[in-house]
Every structure is written in C-alpha cells, then in structure tokens.
Amino acid sequence: MNNIINIGILGGDKRQIELANSLYEDGQNVFTTGFDKALDKVKVLNLNIDQMLKNSEYIVLPIPSTRDGLYFFTPFSEFKTPINDVFIRKIKNKTVFCYGADSLIKLCPNFSNCNFYDYSAKENFLQYNAKITADCAIELAKDKFGNSFCNKKVLVCGYGRIGKYLVELLVRENTELFVSVRNKNHFAKLEKMKVQPILTYKLKEYTDFDIIFNTVPSLIFDFDTLEKTSKHALLIDLASKPGGVDKLSAEQLNINLIHALGLPGKMAPIKAAEAIKNTIYNFIEEKE
User: Fold this and answer.
1) pTM attached to this predicted model
2) What percent of the chain has pLDDT over 70?
C-alpha cells in the first residue's frame, strides 16, 4: 500500500484485534470501536461508534457481522451497536468490508444502498480461510485425541473447500480415511488418492469411526445416524449454523461433539487477520 488510508474497525473477535494492530504497524490511520474490554490488546485508541465512523473512509465489520440479528458482534465490548437505519445513514458514503452482505440486507433492506465489499464473494479469501480452518480442525482433533492419527479410522463429510484441505492434510497422516460426498462425481479422484469415498445418504451403513469432521451445513447426523456412530468417536462439526449434527441426539447418545465455529478467529487470529488485510489492500489497489 502506497497511500495512507483512514480505516475503522467495528468490533469482532481476536482476528479483528490483530487486523487493527497489523494495519497500524503498516502506518495506516486506524480507528476502532467495540474493544473496551480489550484495551491492553489493541494498539490503537478505542473510540465510540460516532467518532470511529467520522474519522474513517473504510469500515470493517466483524465476522460474523452479528450473532443475534439485532446488534453487531462485539464480544470485547460492554456496549452494543444496533443494526438499523441510523447506522446505515452514517456509512452511506463509505466503503464497508463485511462477510455476508446478503444476510445484512435481509435484516435491514436499506443496507442494499451501501457500498459493500463482501469477502464471501471472493474466492481467494474463501480458499485461504478454508485452509486455515482445516489446519485448526486438525490441531483441535490432535489436542483432543492425541498427536497422531496413525491407524485411526477417520471420516470427512463433504468435499467442498474445507473438506478438500482436510483430505489433503489427512492423507499424510497414515489414516484409514473415508470421505462422504453427495454423488459419485468425486469417487475416481478420491480413490486415486487412496481415500475411500462413500455416499452421504448411506452414512448409516458405516460405523466405528474414531474421528469425524463434518463440513456439510445441513442436518446429516440425525439420531439414527448418530446411533450407528461409535461411542468413542470424536465428532468435530465445522459447518455453519445450525451445523450438520443434531446436538440433543448427540448429547443423549454421549457422542463427543465439538461444534467448532469460527476456528480461524479463535485459533489462528494472526493468519486470519492477514487474509482480511490482504483482501482489503487488493481492493484499494485495484480501485486506485
């Protein structure tokens, strides 16, 4: 970045804190709000929402933008910023970076008049974020199950971005690896990698997995499927809400379930912040 930018960051988790610090270290004019409970971690002055918006040409919203559909996601703040038309009027002439603009527009239709730059529509960002998520998921499983997957029976549900990176990592681990897919289009490629493909709708026919990674964002682990799952299995659900696992059934059956949302922000905030920063810089450089 050759030019200094005025950029504001509205709340978020650890990745937004690292983003603010990284932008500041680059010499940018950074203004934050929503970090009053993390003042020792943020290197720039934490302002109120109006001050932040007044000083900023670019605005970075949290990931996710909201948890409850009413307020922006600000876990490090005692104060809440409502998602409403008042806020929209204040950002009308600014560029707003977010993840999932469509969701915001559904909550408040007037957001459609804003100048959004949506990470969720950028393949480079999605690929990098998927890689971070897969790395974190493997680390999480090793923390819970031991440092080696050698000779373990492992299942990856779904073969999208995250699923592909998980498979890439797991084929190096000397596991008995299965991957569930919706149709047979991926069978040949997976078999060539010495991975055993199965059809997702036939999951009930397969049992005794030691570790299961789910990336499918629809309910595939209902009571009947979970009942066939080995009771010693570790099930890590990486799918976005509501996830792919019936939590109540998992609890009733004593399945060791981890619903691992937002792993990049929790386990790799520096890498996640770098991905956001690079996306922002690329946009501004293209604009110039």
Assistant:
1) 0.90
2) 99
